[in-house]
Amino acid sequence: MQAAIFETTGDVEVLHVKTVPDPQPGPGEVVVRVEAVGVNRLDLMMREGRVPARPMPHIAGSEVAGTVVAVGAGVTRPLGQRVAVAPYLFCGQCESCLAGHETVCLKGDILGLGSQGGYAEYVVVADHSLIPIPDGVSAEQAAAVTLSTITAWHMLVDKVRIRPGDWVLVWAAGSGVGSAAVQIAKMMGAKVIATAGQPAKVERAMAELGADYGIDYSREDVGLRVRELTQKRGVDVVFEHLGQQTLPTSVRALAREGRIVTCGTLTGNYAEIDVWTLFAKELQIVGSYGGTREDLRQVLQAVAEGRLTPVIDTVWPLTDVQSAHQRMSAREQFGKILLKPTR
């Protein structure tokens, strides 16, 4: 099969497409013919060497949708079924898994991080990680929501449980996870303030995603603007995934008893916050990691019912993987970048 691999870490030139052996399913495993795979910030971090990938040479790609073409021993799933891969892999046997908390599995992994991923014509995964794609949902739409959107869903629906009328601040609304968060928050009846680093992205967040207000964080003081928009009250929830540079502002932007939910550290792992404000206003900072199979089921159903629209920036052939990575590195995208294997 054809796959985009890197044999050493570095800039985009280390990525190249070559022929590698077709994967074979072991007991309890399934081979999926990849119809579409998303490009994620994690893929860039692995390729650059900031996050260790294994094995090497490595095939990245966590956000896979396609068709079942082979099954291993013990698997009864029908050939030809259209499926999306739940990318947060779990053992099903540790104390976290047995308690139903598969995203914090003691042996947890992400497809394409500690295993070969979906930048390829085929990928092998555990059968229990597959979710059928509902009728009316394309492979591109399914791939676009498998990681970023279920992460946002887990944060807003499972962790902080947004209520109708809540004010929600979403950082980087042009990203895959940010664009999903705006839609999910609006679907739940919230008033959304979307931030982005370019005026055009701010406008699109309001015009296309439904955000009520927009802030260009490259030109405006986000904390001050939030106070103006909320009549000095602050927001109930901050959707945080940038980390070091934005967390102090996120704390200042909260109303009393407000909550920050965070899933990322794009700008750095360590941040200083005002601890006095944290306890005096009875604030909460909630960590959230990935999303579950049930989250993916609910997200795909919301797409099928038209309540959620996958935001797809561009679709590239697998052979243009370098260009896709360059677009994400330059932060030019609005929504998800996808790759499609050519056959």
What does this structure look like?
- With 343 residues, this protein is of the alpha/beta class.
- The chain folds into 2 domains: 2-147 and 291-340, Quinone Oxidoreductase, Chain A, domain 1 (Alpha-Beta Complex); 150-287, Medium-chain alcohol dehydrogenases, catalytic domain (Quinone Oxidoreductase, Chain A, domain 1).
- It has helices at 41-48, 95-98, 139-145, 148-159, 176-187, 199-207, 222-229, 247-253, 275-280, 293-304, 321-329, and strands at residues 2-6, 15-19, 29-39, 63-71, 82-85, 88-89, 109-110, 122-126, 130-132, 167-170, 191-196, 213-216, 235-240, 254-262, 284-287, 312-317, 336-340.
- The strands form 4 sheets. Strands 3, 4, 5, 8, 9, 16 and 17 form a 7-stranded mixed sheet that branches.
- It starts with a strand and ends with a strand.
- Residues 10-339 form the Enoyl reductase (ER) domain.
